[in-house]
C-alpha cells in the first residue's frame, strides 16, 4: 500500500494514540519523520523515541507524554500538503497560539521549530502546527 502523504499519516498516528491514551505508538521510519519526532522530543511534547530496524523501512517507536492524565499534544495539524504547499519567509514565520504552540518548518538548513528558524533568520515550508 502506498501513501500519498506519509507525513500526515505519521502525525495522525501520533495524534490518535494520544487521544486513545496509549503509552507508545509505532510509526514508519523515514528522514522527515525522524526530524519531526526529534523536534517533538526537544520541545517536550513526547517522552522519548527509539528507532528499530525491521529489515524493510524501519519503525520509530514514539513514547507519548501525559500531564494530569491528558496528552501533552492536544492537536497536530498538517499545514503544507502535497497538493497545497505553504511557505513562510524569514520575516513571516507563524506563531502558534501566540507562541505557546509550535510550528515545524523545513528550511534549507534542515527541519527546525519556529523559534530556531526565527533565530537563524531562515524561512521554508511550514510542515505542521503542534499545540
Structural description of this entry:
This protein is α+β, with helices and mostly antiparallel strands and 131 residues long. Helices cover 25% and strands 34% of the residues. It contains 3 helices and 10 strands. Strands 6, 7, 8, 9 and 10 form a 5-stranded antiparallel beta sheet that branches. Strands 1-3-2 form a 3-stranded antiparallel beta sheet, covered by helices on one side. A hairpin with a 2-residue loop joins strand 4 (66-67) and strand 5 (70-71). The longest helix is centred in the N-terminal third of the chain and has 14 residues, at 6-19. The N and C termini lie far apart (30 Å). The model has no long low-confidence stretch (mean pLDDT 96).
Sum up the structure in keywords.
single chain, 131 residues, alpha+beta, five-stranded antiparallel sheet, 3 helices, 34% strand
Amino acid at each position: 500500500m502506498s501513501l500519498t502523504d506519509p507525513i500526515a499519516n505519521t502525525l495522525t498516528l501520533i495524534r490518535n494514540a494520544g487521544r486513545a491514551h496509549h503509552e507508545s505508538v509505532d510509526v514508519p521510519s523515514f528522514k522527515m519523520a525522524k526530524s519531526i519526532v526529534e523536534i517533538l522530543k526537544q520541545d517536550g511534547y513526547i517522552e522519548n523515541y527509539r528507532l528499530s530496524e525491521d529489515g524493510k523501512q524501519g519503525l520509530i517507536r514514539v513514547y507519548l507524554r501525559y500531564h494530569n492524565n491528558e496528552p501533552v499534544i492536544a492537536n497536530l495539524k498538517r499545514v503544507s500538503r502535497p497538493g497545497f504547499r505553504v511557505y513562510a519567509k524569514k520575516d513571516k514565520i507563524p506563531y502558534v497560539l501566540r507562541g505557546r504552540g509550535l510550528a515545524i518548518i523545513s528550511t534549507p538548513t534542515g527541519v527546525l521549530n519556529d523559534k530556531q528558524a526565527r533565530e537563524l533568520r531562515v524561512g521554508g515550508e511550514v510542515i505542521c502546527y503542534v499545540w
